[in-house]
Amino acid sequence: RRRRRRCPECGSGSLVEDAHYAQQQLVCAACGCVLSEGLLTTTYTDEEHLREVAYSQSTGQKEQLSRCLQRGIRRVQDLCKVLKLPAAFEETAVSYFQRALELPAFHLVSLEKKELLGGCCVLVTCRQRRWPLTMGTVCSLLYAKQELFASVFLSLQRELGLSVPALSLADLVTTHLSSFRLVQPSANIPGPFLEDKEQLVARTMAIVELASATWLVTGRHPVPVVTAAAFLAWQSLRPGPRLSCPLARFCRLAGVELPPPAQLRLKELLEILLAMASQLSWLRGFRLDKKTVVKHIGELLQHRLLLLKRAFSQQDGLEQQGTGLGMGSESQGSRAVPQQQGSPWAGQQQQRGTLRPLLPPCLLQPRKRLRAAAPSAAGAAVTGDEPISDSEIEQYLRSPEEIRAFRRAKAWS
Amino acid sequence: FKDDFSTSPHLFTPMSPYDLELPIQASSQLSESKELHTDFSSVDLSFLPDVTQDNKEQSLSEDGQETQKELDGSLPSKEDSGVFMDESSLSHPGAAEPSPEAPGVCPPLTPMTPITPATSASESSGIVPQLQNIVSTVNLACKLDLKNIALHARNAEYNPKRFAAVIMRIREPRTTALIFSSGKMVCTGAKSEEQSRLAARKYARVVQKLGFPAKFLDFKIQNMVGSCDVRFPIRLESLVLTHQQFSSYEPELFPGLVYRMVKPRIVLLIFVSGKVVLTGAKDRSEIYEAFENIYPILRGFKKPS
């Protein structure tokens, strides 16, 4: 029962109930004046029967980032700040992280993996922008196990279909060396050990290139190569006082870790340099060894293209290896080396006329004995349906005495 | 990796204008043009036992056409021989049964012919991958008491805290089996499909002799692993650049390059030494086919001396 109302403005009696959007309003049809707006509630009974909208049904949950995602994004941002990456990297890494976390492959993984996922996104971003961040650095920042990090990295690459360029060695040299303390004067670094950064970087790059050309880099972890190259570069720039400093001490002074493979890389580099030195006419008379050759690294690098051609037999592995080992090259008439010996080329560097081929070290010094190449002879006759003799099977069954003894010993429950 | 062929165009690029114009009867000419095959093989020396010298010469002469070689080499061998046959019949006008299109197509043929010897060279790379491991499964179709088996069998090992299966080994064929309480069994270590089957049967017999009504149902080869050596070092960093869609090379993680071939669906581990491991095959032909596909690609990275 409603009293007939009149519009307070114009006095007209034609009032219409209308909805402004979804709100009921009483409007004067003549002048448009709004008399009353819809009430928020109606009656007590209505209030009791209507149910509130649950949070899970509202859009609030979708619009708000989950706590897990928020934490993950913060971690990615923190990582970028610690690594002092450019601002644009952070955005990209966060967007990768958000995309990845939505995918079923990552949504339900353990928290540990989600933390690594953030690190992987940062790593992918850096690789794509040619910023030489190594996995080792990210793993140490996240206290991560490398195998787990590896698996998350590879699945991220696969799930998001990202193309991740390779780590650029040249960029790695520049960044790695900038963290070396030997390029800035400091209390515990002797004067003669201090080195100019530009020169050190340039020479290290040249040695790394040499290593790359002589098969020392392919398949190996990049950081030990750079460490060994930096050491040789540093020594060669001022051999006098530095030749007596071993690699371990160099790394301590520089304030970097000595990765274990670096010693082996150093040895391999020196072998290459010695082989090159043996082809440089004015150095032949010096009978250089692993220490003294360092003094001439500058010259060797200068003529490296020619020396590499001369120092190593140009025949590729294919012609050399009749049986898969580095045998003597027929064209140079060197003596045949029996297969049993581990490294036919080790002692022959400086002998004229016996040049070793330019091959990866794993081919020059094979560690495994080649197994007999004909196991198929025995296996070929097997059809899979041969009769199986009882005696053969019985050899695998325990006798009653054995069982008794075992029972006593093991006390089966 | 999805089987999305559109992302691997170079594996399926047709050798235009050939594929469009080749009549279907090209394949029927295979048997007829056998003689032509031998005629043509005066240029193709792949039947010689030592392939090395010949391939070296060919790779030197085809320097400019190396990418073409890769394209051809990656095509499945059947298609190659089909094209090959037609080419030979077309390039020998006096041949027994030239295809109807021969007169029109002949002129553009000659510049393409040097490519075919490379293709057939890859068909017979001279290297056969050796099978190293076969993984198979079989259903013994009966519930097993693993503690009982471990107690009564000499060659069994059972540590329920570590793994919920009995590990059993036999000497001939030298294999290992994982036997689960559900009656399912996994057999690994055999060097051939037949050996794997024989070994699985022997394990089933052992279980039978231990008093369980074991059967031998649904024997299936699940995975085959092969390996071989191409005998020259490979620049993995270059391979990953040219075949980025299929390769993954992370020296910080693993020294080898992981190549996921789409057809056949095989994963290859390629190492700097030239050793290649092929895995993921359900049939040995997949391993052979995968190697024949990868060999020309790897040859492209061999430095001519």
UniProtKB/TrEMBL annotation, chain A:
Region (Disordered): 319-351
Subcellular location: Nucleus
Name of a matching Pfam family: Zn_Ribbon_TF
Domain TFIIB-type: 3-36
Regions of compositional bias (Low complexity) in chain numbering: 338-351
GO cellular component, one term: nucleus
UniProt keyword Zinc present: yes
GO molecular function terms listed in the Swiss-Prot or TrEMBL record: TBP-class protein binding; zinc ion binding
UniProt record, GO biological process: transcription preinitiation complex assembly
Function summary: General activator of RNA polymerase III transcription. Factor exclusively required for RNA polymerase III transcription of genes with promoter elements upstream of the initiation sites. Contributes to the regulation of gene expression; functions as activator in the absence of oxidative stress. Down-regulates expression of target genes in response to oxidative stress. Overexpression protects cells against apoptosis in response to oxidative stress.
Name of this protein: Transcription factor IIIB 50 kDa subunit
Name of the gene this protein is made from: Brf2
UniProtKB/TrEMBL annotation, chain B:
Residue stretches of biased makeup (Basic and acidic residues): 66-81
Protein localization: Nucleus
Pfam families to which the protein is assigned, alphabetical: TBP
CDD domains per record: TBP_eukaryotes
Disordered as annotated region, ranges: 1-103
InterPro entries: TBP, TBP_CS, TBP_dom_sf, TBP_eukaryotic
PROSITE patterns referenced in this protein's UniProt entry, alphabetically: TFIID (PS00351)
The entry's keywords: DNA-binding, Nucleus, Transcription
Gene: Tbpl2
Biased composition (Polar residues): 1-10
Entry similarity comment: Belongs to the TBP family.
GO BP terms in the entry: DNA-templated transcription initiation
Molecular function via GO: DNA binding
Gene Ontology CC annotation, any one: nucleus
Name under which the protein is recorded: TBPL2 protein
Native source species: Melospiza melodia (Song sparrow)
Gene3D superfamilies tied to this protein: TATA-Binding Protein
Biased composition (Low complexity): 93-103
